[in-house]
Amino acid sequence: MSAFPPLRHLLLRPRLPLSSPPSLPLPLRLPRRRLLFSAAAQSFSISSTTTQDDAAESVDAPVSGKDSSLIDVNPPRGTRDFPPEEMRLRSWLFENFREVSRILSFEEVDFPVLESEALFIRKAGEEITQQLYNFEDKGGRRVVLRPEITPSLARLVIKEGKSLSLPLKWFTIGQCWRYERMTRGRRREHYQWNMDIFGVSKVRAEAELIHAIVMLFERLGITSVDVGIRVSSRKVLQAVLQMYAVPEHLFTQVCVIVDKLGKITREEIEKELMLTGVSSKAAKGIINVLSINSLSKLEEVLGSDGEAVADLKKLFSLAEYYGYSTWLSFDASIVRGLAYYTGIVFEAFDREGKLRAICGGGRYDTLLSTFGGDNIPACGFGFGDAVIMELLKEKGLVPDLVRQVDDIVFPLDEELEGPASSVVSSLRKKGRSVDLVLDKRLKWVFKHAERINASRLILVGNSEWQQGMVRVKILSTREEYEVKIDQLQ
């Protein structure tokens, strides 16, 4: 029979009274109000204005009023804090990004968030060049918070040069910044998973990338009923421009304009094309061809000998072998808004049409030469964290990721803080996550254990410690036992 009284008696053990916590003048949650900190007074206060949703685009103005030291503790508009519950979700998503990349034999790389402005300034009229967080640093250099990752990747490939062994299969998870109007799933900063392949000119590279995207969706519980992947090729547009004798130098401008198909009317697209110098007949023809959503119909228009049709047919054939053909559909209007794409392009979308594109990418064989390097066949995609989380919420697929701790160690008397610390140290060296709780009542400890989903409660008491023992309670089964300290695992 155990020499230790059951834990329910310990709940009644007299404890030294604890000093009352200072009263808190503020509630823990302040919905739609700004919580401000006064550095001068070292106290909290609440502004009298409510937080606006900012329908109109404007730069956040400094707080006005008598006390100019008041600081808005909300993050800058369009950015996010990650408290523990949000951080658990982010880590879970990133772990899935990394696991899919590992399964496909990709290596992880990373780059600085701060890059040279010249890396992202291109003469293509791209929307992204108008959304840069760019400035001059203290050394007089023009720098930018990167709006996307592919140019950084290209820079590193050029830098490493001939030391690299092709093909390269690299991935990264990095933060990107764009000053743009926010909508659902669109923020001014987001994290993006990129996978890129350098040194493979054939369509099998795009097939591998799409395989990664589909695998990620399936791991998250998303099916082809929820999401589709539209596929086309920039070579389709090149062929159409040749049909209508549109000058080659207008290609990138036309790409940027026709990427707006579905976002603005056909008439507006036609008008913008004509403003670049495209004839009315050619503008109508371009729009008509890019409205085709059948690969067989495209073949009737362009013929079967061109690279565009051949590449697309090969990709759809490979999709059958990979087993993801039900996810794919041909849509000639997909051109992607970035000027550097040269071949197959693709983007994933939710079939209900409630969200913007979930991810997108394509081939960019000539990007390196725009930075002064030698061209290497390349393709890749970017997959942001914001839209996919919106989709998971929509489908009820967001996991309930609660905090989990292996052990709580609690000394029953104040003078046992040292011995309890030695128990904590021993357990942590064995790889267990351990929370040391001091200056609390046992009733509070039990509630705390429930909050953090602790597996065990380890009590350090005077009489137990003198015998070289501690008491262990398995919280899921309420089983109790005593164990020698050197045998505690």
Broad shape: elongated
| Gyration radius from CA atoms, angstroms | 30 Å
User: What average pLDDT do the residues reach?
Assistant: 85
How far the N terminus sits from the C terminus, by CA atoms, comes to 23 Å
Poorly predicted regions? 1-5, 10-64
Count of alpha/pi helices = 14
Helicity range of the residues?
Answer: 25-40%
Give the strand order of the largest sheet, numbering strands 1, 2, ... along the chain: 4-8-9-14-13-12-10-11
The secondary structure category is alpha+beta
- Sheet of most strands: 8 strands, mixed
Give the percentage of residues in beta strands.
Answer: 15-25%
- Strand tally is 19
Describe this structure in words.
The chain has 489 residues and is α+β, with helices and mostly antiparallel strands. α2 packs antiparallel against α4 (204-219). A hairpin with an 8-residue loop joins β12 and β13. The chain is built from 14 helices and 19 strands. It is elongated and about 95 Å long. The strands form 4 sheets. The protein has an 8-stranded mixed beta sheet with strand order 4-8-9-14-13-12-10-11. A 5-stranded mixed beta sheet has the order 16-15-17-18-19, sandwiched between helices. Mean pLDDT is 85; it is low at 1-5 and 10-64.
